[in-house]
C-alpha cells in the first residue's frame, strides 16, 4: 500500500478542519469542505479513499452525504464524527454505511490516524479479495467459495496443475475446512467435468453397506437386495468419485478398494463376473494418515496409492483473511433464505468474528452467520445475535494472545478488547470508575465498548443497579 491515500474531511468548524488537516498532513492528501455542496464537488472530481463526515452541520445533515457515498462511491469508506449527534443519529449513520465513529472534541489526535489506518486496512482487504477473486475466476471455472488468502492461493496454484490430470489425490485437513469443495473444484476443471461427480462419506456407513454402494450388488446377494443395483464406481464412470473420511474404512475393505485403484476392476456383491471402471478417485481425511499407517490401522500400500498428490487445506485460523469473504457470502445467502433485509456487521462484531478461533472452521462460521441472521432484529448484526460460544470465547480472552499471528488492525482490536474486558471485570462494570482508571471520558469508554462488541452490562456485579451511569 505505497499509494498516498486521499482523505476528504467535511466539517462546518474551521478550527476542526485545521486540527485534522495538521494531524494528517504529510501522511495523506487531505481535502477539506465546510458544507455538503463543496464535499459533493470534491467527490465528483476525484476518488477519495476515506471521508470523515460531521453528522451535525449548520442547517444540514451529514447523514445525507453518507447515503450518497454508499450509493455512488462504494469504494470510499466513511468515518462519522460529531460531538452533538444523538445516539439515534450515530446508529443511523452506521446503518447507512459509516464504518467508524469519532466523538468530538478529539482529545487524542492520534486516534484519527488509528481509525483511518484501520479503515484503510479493511478497504485494502476487500479490494485484494476482489482482485484475487477475478484472478481465480479467470484461471479456474468455479462457482464455489474458497477464500483469497495467500495459503489458499498457494493451494489453488497446485490445484491448477493437477486438475487436468487423472492422478489420484488425497485431500487432508481439519473437519469443516471444505475438503469436499476442493474435490469438486478439481472435477469442475478436469476433462471429466461433463460427467458425474459422485460423493460418498465412508465414515457414515457400515462396511457391508459401503461395499454395496461403491461396487453395486446383485439381486439376492443379501436379505434386502430385491433387485440388481449399480454402484458408485459405475455411476461415476468417466467422472470423479470422492471418498470422504477414507480413514474410517476397515482394513478388509481397504484391500478391495486398492484392487480397484490399481486395476480399474471390481466385482459387485453377489456377482461372479468383473466390471471395469474409468473413474478418477479423490479421497479425503481429517486424520494423520502416516500415524495411522505406523499404528497399523490404515494400509500403507493404499496410503501411497492414494497420496500421489496431496492437497492440505489449512484451518481457518491460519487464513483469517478468508473470514471476510465467507462472512459476506454467507450473509447474502441467509438473508435471501430467511427473507431478511440486507444486514450489515459493525466493526466490533466483525473484529469478534475475525479473532475467534473457529475450531469447526468454515462449517462453524457458516452456522454462526446463519444463527446471527435468524436472531437479528435490526439491520445490524449485534454481539447478542452470535452463538453463545463466540460471546463466551470473547469474554474469556483474558489469557495471553499471540499477537504476532494477527495483522496490525486485528492485534490492536484484540489488545483493546482484552484491556477493556479486564478493566470492566476489575471494576465490576462501574463505567465511571473504569473511565477514570483508563483516563478517558465515559462517552469514549462506551463508544470503544460498542465498536469492539463488548456488552458492559454483562460485567456489572449487580445487574439491577445502574452503576455504570448513563451517557
Brief account:
The chain is 47% helix and 13% strand. It is α/β, with parallel strands linked by helices and 471 residues long.
The CATH topology of the largest domain corresponds to Rossmann fold
Low-pLDDT segments, ≥5 res: 134-138, 396-402, 462-471
Main sheet summary:
5 strands, parallel
Tertiary shape: elongated
What's the architecture of the largest domain in CATH terms? 3-Layer(aba) Sandwich
Q: Rounded to an integer, what's the Rg over CA atoms?
A: 28 Å
Task: Return the domain count.
Answer: 3
Structural class of the secondary elements?
alpha/beta
Note the beta-strand portion: 5-15%
Helix/strand layout:
Blueprint: E1 6-10, H1 14-24, E2 29-33, H2 36-45, E3 50-54, E4 56-57, E5 60-61, H3 62-72, E6 77-82, H4 87-96, E7 98-103, H5 110-139, H6 150-163, E8 169-172, H7 179-188, E9 197-201, H8 207-215, H9 232-235, E10 240-244, H10 251-263, E11 265-266, E12 275-276, E13 280-285, H11 289-295, H12 300-306, E14 309-312, H13 321-337, H14 347-355, H15 361-375, H16 388-395, H17 408-427, H18 431-438, H19 442-451
Parallel strand pairs: 1-2, 1-3, 3-6, 6-7, 8-13, 8-14, 9-10, 10-13
Antiparallel strand pairs: 4-5, 11-12
Amino acid at each position: 500500500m505505497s499509494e498516498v491515500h486521499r482523505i476528504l474531511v467535511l466539517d462546518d468548524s474551521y478550527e476542526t478542519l485545521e486540527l485534522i488537516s495538521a494531524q494528517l498532513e504529510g501522511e495523506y492528501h487531505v481535502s477539506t469542505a465546510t458544507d455538503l455542496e463543496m464535499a459533493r464537488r470534491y467527490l465528483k472530481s476525484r476518488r477519495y479513499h476515506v471521508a470523515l463526515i460531521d453528522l451535525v452541520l449548520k442547517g444540514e445533515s451529514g447523514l445525507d452525504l453518507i447515503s450518497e457515498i454508499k450509493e455512488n462511491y462504494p469504494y470510499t469508506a466513511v468515518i462519522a464524527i460529531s460531538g452533538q449527534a444523538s445516539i439515534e443519529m450515530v446508529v443511523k449513520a452506521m446503518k447507512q454505511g459509516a464504518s467508524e465513529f469519532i466523538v468530538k472534541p478529539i482529545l487524542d489526535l492520534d486516534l484519527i490516524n488509528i481509525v483511518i489506518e484501520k479503515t484503510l486496512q479493511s478497504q485494502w482487504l476487500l479490494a485484494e479479495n476482489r482482485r484475487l477473486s477475478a484472478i481465480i475466476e479467470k484461471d479456474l471455472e468455479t462457482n464455489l467459495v474458497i477464500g483469497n488468502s495467500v495459503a489458499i492461493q498457494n493451494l489453488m496454484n497446485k490445484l491448477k496443475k493437477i486438475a487436468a490430470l487423472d492422478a489420484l489425490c488425497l485431500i487432508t485437513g481439519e473437519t469443516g475446512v471444505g475438503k469436499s469443495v476442493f474435490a469438486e473444484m478439481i472435477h469442475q476443471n478436469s476433462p471429466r467435468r461433463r460427467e458425474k461427480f459422485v460423493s460418498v462419506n465412508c465414515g457414515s456407513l457400515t462396511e457391508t453397506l459401503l461395499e454395496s454402494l461403491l461396487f453395486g450388488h446383485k439381486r439376492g446377494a443379501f436379505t434386502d437386495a430385491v433387485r440388481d443395483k449399480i454402484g458408485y464406481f459405475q455411476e461415476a464412470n468417466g467422472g470423479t468419485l470422492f471418498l470422504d473420511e477414507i480413514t474410517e474404512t476397515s482394513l478388509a475393505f481397504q484391500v478391495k478398494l486398492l484392487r480397484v485403484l490399481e486395476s480399474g476392476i471390481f466385482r459387485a456383491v453377489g456377482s461372479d463376473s468383473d466390471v471395469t471402471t474409468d473413474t478418477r478417485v479423490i479421497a479425503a481425511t481429517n486424520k494423520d494418515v502416516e500415524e495411522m499407517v505406523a499404528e497399523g490401522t490404515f494400509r500403507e500400500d493404499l496410503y501411497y496409492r492414494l497420496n500421489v498428490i496431496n492437497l492440505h487445506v489449512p484451518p481457518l485460523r491460519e487464513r483469517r483473511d478468508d473470514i471476510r469473504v465467507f462472512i459476506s457470502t454467507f450473509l447474502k445467502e441467509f438473508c435471501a433464505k430467511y427473507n431478511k433485509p440486507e444486514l450489515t456487521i459493525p466493526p466490533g462484531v466483525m473484529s469478534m468474528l475475525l479473532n475467534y478461533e473457529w475450531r469447526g472452521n468454515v462449517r462453524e462460521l457458516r452456522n454462526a452467520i446463519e444463527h446471527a441472521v435468524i436472531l437479528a432484529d435490526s439491520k445490524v448484526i449485534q454481539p447478542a445475535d452470535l452463538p453463545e460460544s463466540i460471546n463466551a470465547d470473547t469474554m474469556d480472552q483474558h489469557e495471553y494472545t499471540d499477537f504476532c499471528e494477527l495483522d496490525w488492525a486485528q492485534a490492536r482490536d484484540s489488545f483493546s478488547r482484552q484491556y477493556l474486558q479486564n478493566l470492566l471485570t476489575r471494576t465490576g462494570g462501574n463505567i465511571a470508575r473504569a473511565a477514570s482508571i483508563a483516563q478517558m471520558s465515559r462517552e469514549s469508554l462506551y463508544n470503544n465498548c460498542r465498536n469492539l462488541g463488548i456488552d458492559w452490562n454483562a460485567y456489572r456485579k449487580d445487574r439491577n443497579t445502574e452503576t455504570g451511569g448513563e451517557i
